[in-house]
Design brief:
- By secondary structure, the chain is α/β, with parallel strands linked by helices.
- It has 13 helices and eight strands.
- It has three domains: about 180 residues, no CATH class; about 40 residues, no CATH class; about 110 residues, Glutaredoxin.
- It has a five-stranded mixed sheet with strand order 6-5-4-7-8, sandwiched between helices.
- Helix 1 runs antiparallel to helix 4, helix 4 crosses helix 5 and helix 10 packs parallel to helix 13.
- The longest helix is centred in the first third of the chain and has 25 residues.
Length: about 375
């Protein structure tokens, strides 16, 4: 135990630090994943107003909760590594891993999630892998609690305090930057260099769901299910009820970008037309809220004569048109898009994309309208 405890101490600490740093690259992504959980639980809590209010509260606080959990993960990992207040930190880590295990266990057992978000979008792992990882970590932390006397502090008390303070400041600064100016490392399907049209296709070599047709018949007050090739010889004596399609083997033919349907006037999907344009600027925004309307107006005035500009939002057409009109922005075409797709594309409010034939050439946060306008005016058409 004297030898194994320090080894496990380092492994657990490093795993928490790496996990936290990966999520700190995109705190909004973790917040969205938490929202999925709280929305699901709120919907399931039918006729239980107290639970619905409880889940709705945390749904509305998903971003602060995400920032807190990420910072806690990184700081406790460093604290364990340097041996700062080992008893307190180990109990805190135990509570943290129980919390994580609950989420990953639910994601695995419910079958409602393909990725629990435990390592962000940069390292997508299945709920089963994540649940297994948390069970192993739970056992390792319990082992550390049992042998905590072998955990020795590193450095002086003052140095450890400075390191932990610096870690907290660094983790918060990293998340602030990612939330304000887009993630440092873009692991989303809308990343620079990706062609959105290609990302809307199933990956090469993937398999679609295997569907089997089944007929439902009734006889003698009982219902029977038959495959077309296994109908009974006397099926004419049965009463036909229904025909269903059952998934007998789940495939993996899921495109990286789903639901990218741009609806404008008349509810016509204009995605292929816009993505086929030689050049285009897409501004993704969930609700067109914020203090950036004046910046949008200025940028639109600069570039509208050289490149088509579109607003892509999950709010209604009428609401978007009214907001733009109130801010003196006229002629800017609006398209609506599924809220999940908008949240994936817009990691800041808003996010500006410059496309050439559907390929993402460059993207900017809502704080960089001037930079976007200058780049677009100077940029030459690259794709032939």
């Amino acid at each position: 135990m004297k030898i194994s405890i320090p080894v496990i101490q380092v492994l657990v600490a490093v795993l928490f630090i790496i996990s936290g740093l990966i999520k700190a690259n995109d705190p909004l992504g973790l917040a969205y994943k938490m929202e999925e959980y709280f929305e699901l639980w709120s919907t399931a809590a039918v006729n239980k107003k107290g639970l619905i209010s409880f889940f709705d509260f945390f749904h509305n606080q998903s971003l602060p909760l995400s920032i807190f959990m990420i910072s806690l993960e990184i700081v406790t990992g460093v604290a364990l590594l340097v041996g700062w207040k080992k008893r307190f930190i180990l109990w805190l880590l135990l509570l943290l891993i129980i919390f994580f295990t609950f989420f990953t266990g639910y994601a695995y057992l419910s079958g409602k999630f393909t990725n629990c978000g435990c390592f962000g979008d940069c390292i997508p792992i299945t709920p089963l892998m994540s649940f297994t990882k948390d069970i192993i970590l739970l056992a390792m932390i319990a082992f550390l609690l049992a042998g905590q006397k072998y955990i020795q502090p590193l450095f002086s008390k003052r140095t450890r305090t400075i390191m932990l303070t610096g870690t907290l400041v660094f983790s918060l600064a990293l998340q602030w930057y990612a939330f304000t100016y887009l993630p440092f490392v873009d692991c989303l399907p809308f990343q620079k260099g990706n062609n959105i049209t290609e990302q809307m296709k199933s990956p090469p070599g993937s398999l679609p769901d295997s569907i089997a047709m089944r007929f439902i018949y009734e006889k003698g007050g009982k219902r029977y299910e038959f495959a077309p090739e296994n109908l009974p010889a006397d099926f004419n004596t049965y009463t036909y009820i229904d025909r269903i399609d059952k998934i007998v083997r789940k495939g993996n033919a899921v495109p990286p970008i789903q639901g990218f349907i741009l609806k404008g006037v008349g509810d016509i999907d204009s995605a292929s037309a816009i993505l086929g344009m030689p050049r285009g600027v897409l501004i993704f925004s969930k609700h067109l809220k914020g203090d950036w309307m004046e910046d949008l107006k200025e940028m639109y005035g600069k570039i509208s004569n050289t490149v088509p500009v579109f607003i892509i939002t999950s709010t209604s057409m009428n609401t978007a048109a009214n907001i733009l009109s109130k801010n003196g922005i006229n002629g800017l075409q609006v398209f609506t898009l599924d809220n999940v797709a908008v949240k994936t594309a817009a990691r800041t409010e808003p996010t500006i994309y410059y496309l050439e034939k559907g390929t993402v050439i460059k993207k900017w946060s809502g704080k960089e309208f001037d930079e976007a306008a200058n780049y677009i005016l100077k940029n030459k058409f690259k794709i032939q």
